[in-house]
Amino acid sequence: MRVALFDYGAGNLHSLGKAIEAEGVDVQVTDDWAAALVMDALVLPGVGAFGQAARSLPDDRAPIRDALAGGLPAIGICLGMQLLFDGSDESQGDGIGLVPGRVRKLDTPVVPQMGWNDVETLGDPVFAGVDPAVAYYANSYVCVPDHEEDVIAWSEYAGKRYAAAVRRHNTWGLQFHPEKSSHAGRRMLANWVRAARGVVVARDVVAGREVLAAGDGAAGRDGDYPSPGGRPESGVP
């Protein structure tokens, strides 16, 4: 499975890339959206500022938004989660707009939030086997979704409750840094990779059936059929 790790130009993607590669996938760092959207899954990292990341987006956000709404597996981490929203109080520039809502500054005496915090999970598969859920945060801003049903986890900081994670379609957003969150974080990334693989396999099976239904995959004399999707790396691990 090929995973695009998008580079906003801020660098420092090594630890996240290694953490995902550890799950047996091919991670390719790119700053080309056209190349990123044809891979099997997408990672939006948590490095940089919202304005810089927003400027890395194409003027027309619709192809990214449509790919995610169409089922492309993706995960946004910290800033990457914030980029899934409409916009941010941090700086000018529109986000992708997949998740309706806005990014607001933490309304707490001490900003940023730096360090470990509990995560109250709501049963999403990305948290399977994570108990207790404790994660590492480094953030001054939090996401405020328009629809609470998009929230799959909560955290509290200085008495303020905020969305720790969101999900729409096959896109997850984590406000914390799983790559810095020890065993719990690595398990979350492994769960995401497993979910993404499942989406890729299902997609390729459907594509194979469509080819056969169209007559292009008719059986040969020996009864062999082309493999669904034609991607050997998309098999179930």
Q: What integer is the average pLDDT?
A: 90
What's the CATH superfamily, by name?
Class I glutamine amidotransferase (GATase) domain
Secondary-structure element order, as H and E? EHEHEHHEHEEEEEEEEEH
Helix content: 25-40%
What would you call the structural class? alpha/beta
Runs with pLDDT <50, length 5+?
A: 218-237
What can you tell me about this protein's structure?
This protein is α/β, with parallel strands linked by helices. The protein is 27% helix and 27% strand. The protein is built from six helices and 13 strands. It has helices spanning 14-21, 33-36, 50-55, 62-69, 79-83, 182-213; strands spanning 2-6, 26-30, 41-44, 74-77, 87-88, 101-105, 113-118, 120-121, 134-139, 141-145, 151-157, 160-168, 171-174. The strands form three sheets. Strands 2-1-3-4-13-12-11-8 form an eight-stranded mixed β-sheet. A three-stranded mixed β-sheet has the order 5-6-10. The longest helix is centred in the last third of the chain and has 32 residues, at 182-213. It is globular and about 65 Å long. The termini are close together. Mean pLDDT is 90; it is low at 218-237.
In short:
The chain has 237 residues and is of the alpha/beta class. The protein is 27% helix and 27% strand.
